[in-house]
Predict the structure.
Amino acid sequence: MQRTAGPCAARSTSRSPGSPTSCPAPPLTRPRSSPRRSHGGQLPGWAPISKTPDDRQPPKPRAAAFIATKEHRRFQEFACAVRRHRYIGLCYGAAGVGKTLSARRYARWDLAEPLLLTWGPREDSDAKAYAALASARTVFYTPTVGGTLRELREELKLLTSRADICIDEHLRTRRPGSSSRPGPHRSSRPGHIELLIIDEAERLSATALEYLRDQFDRAGTGLVLIGMPGIEKRMARYPQLYSRVGFAHHYRPLQGDELSFVLTRHWRHLGLALDNADFTDSQAIAAIARITGGNFRLLHRLFVQIERILRINDLTVITSDVVEAARSTLVIGDAT
């Protein structure tokens, strides 16, 4: 029987002998989520947000350490201003610069989302999610592609009511003499949620935007719409909505010292030391800056490939050749 070559077998290419090699990464498989173990009762308002159990499991975020940059701090100030003054805010920027990460971080959504989507029996560890929601007073929502107004209305209502219940539970357990176990069924008091963040706002239809404007007027909560550059021009077509926009924030990519700081973190993650006085490191930094343009998402994808190429070739130094080899495995356009 003829044996086939492995994925990392050498190829007959025109690459120079000293250049690092790369091979395609193995396919990733998503593990099935285990059911939540019950350590307590159920909170009122239980209802599945999706039709199937698999759909109710929130997607696991890709493993990457969050880095608080100046743009993230500016987004925090922007979101706090919208929340405080109850305005509509627009946040726009190129894909991959970190808008969604900053919004989820501000809303503490990585803690809150699994609880709000799965719902059902409570665990003792859910107190952390209650506290996170009580601190942020924010709901983060991403509309589906081609979603209907009914879907938007029902899911926002469900998320908001569940968040209100969790905040009620947190406030109740902090009162002196209160029990830590869920109390009897009661309707949550209005006014806990102070900010609604809508990601991928380009997916919203004109009717959905009008619905959000109506809810903004009725509920008196702040509203942040996140999208690509040009969303502010689209909103200008709706005078009743656009006249309520009080803040706009342009989320920009990494530049200068901030890019160097993030690259230093990536070097440390690989167990290497970045020396700006080293010509090899300076060449690698210049290549990375040229290829990614300071884009957070591209930086993460590029360093995943860099780490793999270093391991395959048993290298301990990131050179411009390593960076170019990593770039050749990604679909990110031509480097300029």
Summary: The longest strand covers residues 222-227. The radius of gyration is 24 Å.
